[in-house]
Each structure stands twice: as structure tokens, then as C-alpha cells.
Design goal:
The chain is α/β, with parallel strands linked by helices. Helix content is 47%, strand content 12%. α1 packs across α8 (176-191). The N and C termini lie far apart (36 Å).
Length: 192
């Protein structure tokens, strides 16, 4: 029998140690808003509320590791598969979250791996990246070496990658409720 691939409308990429509260709240709000959009679509038949994924069931899914990872399965493979099967990848960016990137040329970093894979999908026009800047756009520099993670595509130096990501039009966070609305707007932009 074939294993069906789970597709997600959103993938939330964040640093657990620093941005979990914000990301958890964003997960809840996006789930509520996707459900509201589906309900409006059912009631009105208005295509404005069409989900961005082809399956109605999968369109209301938001990948958030704390809620989405299945016990007893390799967690790293799960988050890589989920990221590869997400339409919009939300990169939660805070100064503290990026600190470890400075040493990722010698210490593997799963958040940086998510950023690398997300950017690769963005370049291939397979998904959209929406950076969410929690405390403004970071200005620090990163290593000119490549990420040491064995699953890294090693396409760019850490600094080149972050320069490219930080140049993408993102959301300057005001509060999580407004940010969730802006993320939902990216669905409409993606569909056009």
C-alpha cells in the first residue's frame, strides 16, 4: 500500500529555546483562520477562500513540531518531509534565535538546516518563504563557511544564505494576531 504524503499550508520554523511561545500562539491562530476560511468557502462557494493546497483536508494543516511530530518516528526526517511538502514556510527570526548560526560551520544547527531547505524550495519556486522578524531585521554577520550539518545542501555560505533570506519581503512583527493575518494574506498572494 502507498503511504500518503501529508501536505501542509504552513510550516513554522523557529528556535525552540527562544521563540516557542510566539510560535505556539501563531500555530493556534493559523489553524483557526484556515478553518474559518474553509467554512466560508463551504457556505459561499467563493473561490477567494480556496485553500492553497489541492486537498481540502490538508489545506487546514499547519506544521508545528510540538503538535505535528509523531512519536516513534525519526523526528528529523519528519520535519524535513513536512518542510518539503509545505506551501508557505514561516521563518521566525529573532536575534537570539540566530546566535547559534555564528558557529554552525562547526556545530550542526537544525534551525539553519530548515532555513537552507526552505530557501532551496523558494529558489525552485516550489514554496513561498515568509520571514517574520520578531525584533526588526537582524544586522549581524555570519560565517563565510558552509553549514556543517550532514543534510545541508551546502549551496551557500551561512552569511550568503542569511543575506538572501533577510532580503525577502517579510513581516515585521507587531503582535501575533496581526502577524497571523499577514500570513493568511500570503495565501492569497501565492494563489495569484
Amino acid at each position: 500500500s502507498r503511504v500518503s504524503i501529508q501536505k501542509y499550508a504552513f510550516f513554522i520554523s523557529y528556535r525552540v529555546n527562544y521563540d516557542q511561545d510566539y510560535s505556539s500562539r501563531l500555530f493556534v491562530l493559523l489553524g483557526q483562520k484556515l478553518t474559518e476560511n474553509q467554512n466560508k468557502r463551504r457556505k459561499t462557494g467563493d473561490s477567494t477562500y480556496l485553500p492553497i493546497t489541492s486537498s481540502e483536508e490538508s489545506s487546514s494543516k499547519v506544521f508545528f513540531d510540538e503538535k505535528s511530530l509523531r512519536l516513534g518516528e525519526e523526528w528529523e526526517k519528519q520535519f524535513i518531509d513536512a518542510l518539503k511538502n509545505s506551501s508557505i514556510i514561516l521563518l521566525i527570526i529573532s536575534e537570539k534565535a540566530l546566535e547559534h548560526f555564528k558557529v554552525a560551520h562547526r556545530e550542526r544547527d537544525n534551525l539553519l538546516l530548515e532555513f537552507e531547505l526552505a530557501y532551496q524550495k523558494h529558489e525552485n519556486k516550489e514554496s513561498k518563504i515568509v520571514p517574520i522578524f520578531l525584533n526588526g531585521i537582524p544586522t549581524q554577520r555570519f560565517s563565510e563557511l558552509k553549514h556543517c550539518h550532514e543534510k545541508s545542501p551546502k549551496q551557500y555560505s551561512i552569511n550568503e544564505l542569511m543575506t538572501k533570506i533577510l532580503a525577502i519581503q517579510g513581516v515585521k512583527s507587531k503582535n501575533v494576531d496581526d502577524d497571523a493575518d499577514k500570513c493568511m494574506e500570503s495565501i492569497q498572494i501565492t494563489r495569484k
